[in-house]
Fold each of these.
Amino acid sequence: MATKRNLDATGQKSPAETASTPRAKMPARKRPRLHQRPTVSLSQLDPSPASSSLFFQLPRELRDQVYHEVWTTTPHLRQRYLRKFYSVTYGHRKPSAQPVNTAAWLLASKQILLEGLAQFHRQSVWHFVDTDAENRPSEYVFPLLTPGLVYAQHLHLEHWTPLDRKDGTFTLRKESVALVNRMVSSMHEDDALKEIRVSILWGAVDPAILASACQFDLSKLERLGVQRGVEEFGFHVAVEGLAWGGVPAARRRVQLAETQFGDALKSEAERVGRALVPDGVESQALDTHREVGSGNSGLLWSWAYEVKKG
């Protein structure tokens, strides 16, 4: 005797029959193995009390001076932040080619770690570089070193085309905007950050892109104004060369374009600086010189601008 099937109007099995049909059991999905990066927890450090060492019986000012002297021997560190690694320097130093990834003396005790990093924060500069910040699978990580607690943050735009150009307007590249957003997200409310600097290193600029009137839009940098404690903003741009042929008419056209290029960039940088440090004292320095050879001429152009709270 044939079994009567429960079919609906479309000829498909009814929900009741479908629900009663056993389903194949899917194998459990294996979870990806998480890679544990080496770090140091405060609970792993020697909790030796201050009274157990003559060093901790010195006034804090003297201990900070000792930390200062030690840090000057290792002025460049590599530190991870939000899964990427950045250069952090003690003082306004240019990041070296061989930074250190460890400072073993910090691990002597909890108090040395806390006081040593506190001194580092008071004098350190966190460098956000658009051609840097690579991922690394394993590195030592200073557990309390963050860009929100350093004295200064420095944004370096060193890509071979540091700015995008669209419809005659130069703007930040999307990678640079991402760095600006990372700087903003790192800022704390304790007003530890006092200084922000932006550096643009431009290679040889083709004068053809300057043929039309150019403008600059650096308004994305105004996001850094979320840190109200900033007392100084610095902006530096270096153009390594604007080259053209030896035709006098071409020279005059490019010289005019150079002037328009420089004036537009300076005007926009000054506007951003006044937005970040209102009513500050402004200063600037311009350095230009030409190199002539092989029938071509080039302008080497460098401009530095600062605005500080009075």
Amino acid sequence: GEPRQRRRLIAELVRNAPEVGRDIHSGAVLAKAIEYGDRDDQLALARSLVMQEGLVASMAKTRHGSGAAKALLEALEGEPEGDEAHRQLREEAGALRQRRYGRAVVACLGAETASKAKAKTCDVWKASSFSRSSTRESNSWPEAFSHVSTEESACGQWPHTFCRTTTGGSSWSDDSGF
């Protein structure tokens, strides 16, 4: 839509953030509004969701809400409200890790924290370009993901995330049954 239409829609979403954020299907709308709104509108919508204690964590547990939570984290990066969003999600990290979509959001927290601290390298792969047999043959997970640029963050590509720490440990998060 036109910028004027987007602003009007986002203004309505901001006004109704608590109700919209609780609806399991509206997460897709929120994610797109954050993605396509201008910077001021992105911040206004993201801030309105973070101001509702527990709403972001609740959204992060659902299929569509997890996309909105990831878009919100990206929009608020470097903003004080971004720290608040991280705090709320970290407080619920245990519950989020028990949910399929929550794990993807927790992976975003780890990837963002790691990039800030330069402690981790996280690469992501797309299921369509990766096969189970190729990992068995190569038995080398990091090389299997080398085709993915580091610009593609865990936040952008769900559900497959491989993270390698600089201390030599590694972890694999996969909900596809591989």
Amino acid sequence: MPTVTATAMGRNEAERGAEHLKGGSCRGIGTGSGIQQPVVIIGAPRSGTTLLFRCLAMHPELWHLPAESHPVLEGPLHPARTGWVSNRAEADSVSPGELAQLRRVFFKRALNLNRILRDPAPLLTGSSLGRRLLTRTMLLTLGKLSRAGLAGRIRLVEKTPKNSLRVPFMDRLFPDAKFLHIVREPRQNIDSLLAGWRSSDRIGPLRLPRFQRAGYPIAGGLSLKDYRGRWWRFALVPGWRSLAGGTLADVALKQWYECNRIAADDLRLIPAERVLTIRFEDFLADPEGAFGEILTWAELGEPGPALAFCRRLPRVNTAGPMARDRTTGLRFPEEVDRALAGFPEASSLARRLGYELDGPA
């Protein structure tokens, strides 16, 4: 098996992340985080977390970060600090002082577009890489305006798929958090992960910034049969080194499996009233009804523009014009089925999540 070790770049990234966190001091806003009952969306990458987040980010009572929380959390939680084991984080993964600082940074960077825009929807519907980068730049500017005159506590919606591996940590970071777990039909989720791995991270001659890629320069050491890239994409799951010599479909399957298995196990230890699991397919079939269920569970008031936004769900995380199989709707049906055939544990987890995996797609 090829040896995969932490690179100098990886160590430097962890150090930069730590400095990034230190630079987020929030003098003048008090010693507490100012955040109460945040809604933490978790799910495997490409399971529908982005779509769900954008709908909730439209709610006038909810604040959010300009993007996923990688720049915030991967100061103290960067995997280079633990020998590249994984993105897994336990309740005691950081010190009490670091926890307090993280809470302050989340508060400082939160924004609420409803405070300054009549219709924030155009800023939450971009899908192309170029539009996402432009949108993030605009959000950073508008976020400062939205915080003008802010006093008291806020409610936050946070969406970072890697947090599927960090439920105990997120529960300690925000002890009153509500966890919204979204699951998706396994083949569709794995297929979408494959498409994500194979999509470009370039805009013309430019490569996406480090934290926008949300990956690590370690994939080359795996010697995958059908991937020669250097960057690992999406969640770094426990046991990833065992995939050496395998295929990209094996990687995508492992990511779907570990993110959902670990999240489901961890969520059993959270009080039931703080956990809601929703199926991506149910949300697409009846977005208004599913959104209403979420609002009731999260104890949120009138949805404002969020309800209209749900009725015209935007396309998100599209991976270019890849052809789909007419029968299954998958882009890589044979690869997905081969990976599943060699991983029998997937069927039991699928049933646990409410799906069946009997036979090929």
Amino acid sequence: MGVNRLNGNGIVSTGGVIMAPDNTGVPLLVNPDYLYNNFRTYQIKVIDASYNPNQFVDYQTFQQRQYYGNFVSLRTQFVNYDYNELHILNAVHFNIDIATYPTRNQLYTLYPPALFQQYVRMLGINQNDYIVVYSRDTLGGMRYAAAVWELFRIYNHTRISVLNGGLNAWRSAGYETTANIKWLQFNQMVDAIFKKLIW
């Protein structure tokens, strides 16, 4: 099994370990060895998509508390204790309940691109970053990771892959985890990433 790198053009070289690449040149799935070999290049941002559906706030409460687009308050409301207790080193937590909002008829409504962009900036995600997302839930840690993968692609950020097997696969491979929470400053993300938004 070869060592895998990002080449000089920012395109992923597979090295024989990537499954089901799509036509963007970015793999749909990566394994723990691939992530370990690449994420220290700082060209990869790792997202923990662990989710607790019991924290859901109904749309009336959401409106009363003026949560719409108030990502600082939402991060206080939706704390993921699984992430806080254990996650991949340097991973940031992405919460679907913060990245979307509830309405009367829909639990997860998409924000306009500019507001989604604000939340992504809070996580330290830049326009050209290659993202690997994982979770720790059922279906091999793939359920919520796949939802976050799809959400980023809706907003036209296609440089994103899912860690096959999630956190359990990472730990089984013997790679490092931590309880240290990574707090990030706002980054400058170019608006062009969202110009081709697909609704």
